[in-house]
């Protein structure tokens, strides 16, 4: 049983490291998407790019499949992140006097 607890401890340490890396990667991703939102708002561009989002979903699903990750899960995760990007872009656009387009977004830097 000691071996099982030792193995569990090692796995959990790796999981903790991965979780920390994911948080840092998401922070960097949102730093980039915020810059995209500012750029779009500054130049009067719409917060949404539906064709890019469609391309990115297909790309992410393909990457997930190649990595033996459930593509449906990957798409759900992307949609979750995109909702947050949308919210940020709408806030940025509103603070720059631009339109707020609820339900639309951009998937920059994916």
UniProtKB/TrEMBL annotation:
Keywords: Isomerase. SUPFAM superfamilies: Chorismate mutase II. Residues 2-93 form the Chorismate mutase domain. PROSITE patterns: CHORISMATE_MUT_2. One of its GO terms (biological process) is salicylic acid biosynthetic process. Coiled coil: none annotated. InterPro entries: Chorismate_II_sf, Chorismate_mutase-related, CM_bact, CM_dom_sf, CM_II_prokaryot. GO terms for molecular function: chorismate mutase activity. Its EC number is 5.4.99.5. It comes from the Bacteria. The keyword Isomerase applies. This is chorismate mutase. It comes from Pseudaminobacter soli.
